[in-house]
Description:
Layout: E1 8-13, E2 18-19, E3 22-23, H1 39-54, E4 59-62, H2 72-83, E5 88-96, E6 109-113, H3 119-132, E7 139-144, H4 148-152, E8 157-164, H5 168-174, H6 177-196
Parallel strand pairs: 1-4, 1-5, 5-8, 6-7
Antiparallel strand pairs: 2-3, 6-8
Helix pairs in contact: 1-6, 3-6
Amino acid sequence: MNIVSNYKYILDAGHGGVAFGHYLTKGKRSPQVPPGIYEGEFNRKICSGVPKLLDGCLDVMQLNPGPVNISLSSRVNYINELSALEKTILVSIHANASPAKGWSSANGFVVFHSTNASNESKELACIISDTMGKIVINSRGVKVSNFYILRKTKCPAVLVECGFMTNKEEAIMMNTLNGQFFICRAIANALRIFDKSL
Length: 198
């Protein structure tokens, strides 16, 4: 299939993964695994699943597909170098966590853009929130945050917290193939809708 993207879409998965039997990012995990998740591993499953559902119709790349936790500054520098050459959109994938110890009742997905976000960032955040809201998970809506990766990138950017890895029910869902498929499909559908709207 010929790629007809208006943008190159960069899928960013943070917080490392499992390598040599060890999880590489301290604290970024459910209180128990199993039944919960390691955030970095979950992020990568979503980032690798989205392009498969797009079937080559959009220009999508994974920024950090391997288990190593690439620093935020390195990721931002790469994104900015790429966006200087072509029109680029960043979608950073994460799983949320409650500050409370142990399992928490906090739940739902949320989509963030920065304080000084472009119109494209705001539009994509709203579209992702709408498509994510069609899956069986509570919506916390679109919010504003000055996360480093949103604040420092020079292209339109959003950050998706796909659910709470500290909520036992959500973490179990996020660790299933069906749960991951529905999240991937929601993000893929949002990218299609956004790209066609340009």
